[in-house]
């Protein structure tokens, strides 16, 4: 479903040139939850930004269903951001003055969907994440876990095949974080959505189907056992 081939990206020039991604190769299957780990500054966010169409790579190729891109200027991959990839962040990025439903509706309208269809899709997605009784609540009336569910509803409402989650549990307590990961797994299993999730938490990473460890600009591990051992998965 998603294939990244020999993706490279650096910043600066001359002696100040820093090669962040040195030839990334990875594949994510439909309905798979993959955790991406690695030390700060190793290029995790850079990788997500290129996959999400927010940044262009220096070389290499990305294939996401019918889309092929990677080195094109970001303004030529608008359809990737509208139809291919949904984003979930550590901060929820909800508009404080809008209720849960309107936060999702607004995002859909900005992507070009008419108001009636946007409201229907927004309601369906909020029900999908378990917030059917919280649609009229503004962010201040929601818990952290509920706010993140609104953000997830916003990301899945456009029927995008891939979600990119950048530290999605970073602002949540342990229980809420685990509930979000369980929701991710359910979305993957029942809706066929694929999720690439950046996390620094090895316990949460162990809940994913697979883990990628980004090290020295390359993917250095491809499963939780090889990176952390059996003990982490069994806790």
Kindly provide the radius of gyration, computed on alpha-carbon positions and rounded to a whole number of angstroms. 18 Å
The CATH C-level name is Alpha Beta
In round numbers, the mean pLDDT is 90
**What spatial form do the alpha-carbon principal axes imply?**
globular
Helical content band: 25-40%
Assigned CATH architecture: 3-Layer(aba) Sandwich
CATH T-level topology: Rossmann fold
Strand tally, please?
A: 10
Distinct helical segment count: 9
The residue ranges in which pLDDT falls below 50 over 5 or more consecutive positions are 230-235
N-to-C SSE series? EEEHEEHEHHHEHEHEEHH
Strand order of the largest sheet: 6-7-8-3-9-10
Quote the beta fraction: 25-35%
The structural class is alpha/beta
**Termini Cα gap:** 31 Å
Count of structural domains: 1
- CATH-wise, what's the superfamily? P-loop containing nucleotide triphosphate hydrolases
Largest sheet: 6 strands, mixed
Short description:
The protein is an alpha/beta fold. It has helices at 44-51, 78-84, 100-110, 115-128, 144-156, 174-191, 202-205, 224-228, 230-234, and strands at residues 2-11, 18-28, 33-37, 59-64, 67-69, 85-89, 162-166, 194-198, 210-215, 218-221.
Tell me what you see in this structure.
- Helix content is 36%, strand content 26%.
- It contains nine helices and ten strands.
- With 235 residues, the protein is an alpha/beta fold.
- Strands 6-7-8-3-9-10 form a six-stranded mixed β-sheet, sandwiched between helices.
- It has a single domain (2-234), classed as 3-Layer(aba) Sandwich (Rossmann fold).
- It has helices spanning 44-51, 78-84, 100-110, 115-128, 144-156, 174-191, 202-205, 224-228, 230-234, and strands at residues 2-11, 18-28, 33-37, 59-64, 67-69, 85-89, 162-166, 194-198, 210-215, 218-221.
């Amino acid at each position: 479903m998603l294939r990244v081939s020999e993706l490279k990206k650096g910043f600066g020039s001359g002696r100040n040139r820093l090669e962040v991604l040195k030839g990334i190769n990875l594949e994510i299957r439909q309905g798979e939850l993959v955790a991406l780990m690695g030390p700060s500054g190793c290029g995790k966010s850079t990788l997500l930004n290129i996959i999400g169409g927010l940044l262009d790579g220096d070389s290499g190729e990305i294939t996401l269903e019918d889309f092929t891109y990677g080195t094109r200027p970001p303004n030529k991959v608008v359809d990737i951001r509208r139809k291919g990839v949904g984003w979930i962040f550590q901060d929820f990025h909800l508009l404080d003055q809008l209720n849960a439903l309107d936060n999702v509706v607004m995002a859909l309208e900005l992507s070009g969907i008419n108001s009636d269809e946007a409201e229907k899709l927004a309601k369906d997605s909020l029900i999908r994440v378990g917030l059917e009784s919280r649609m009229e609540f503004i962010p201040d009336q929601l818990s952290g876990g509920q706010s993140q569910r609104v953000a997830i509803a916003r990301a899945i409402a456009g029927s995008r095949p891939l979600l990119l989650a950048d530290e999605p549990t970073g602002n949540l307590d342990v229980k809420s974080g685990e509930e979000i990961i369980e929701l991710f797994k359910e979305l993957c299993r029942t809706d066929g959505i694929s999720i690439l999730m950046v996390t620094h938490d090895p316990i949460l990473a162990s809940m994913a189907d697979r883990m990628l460890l980004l090290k020295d600009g390359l993917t250095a591990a491809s499963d939780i056992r090889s990176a952390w051992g059996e003990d982490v998965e069994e806790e």
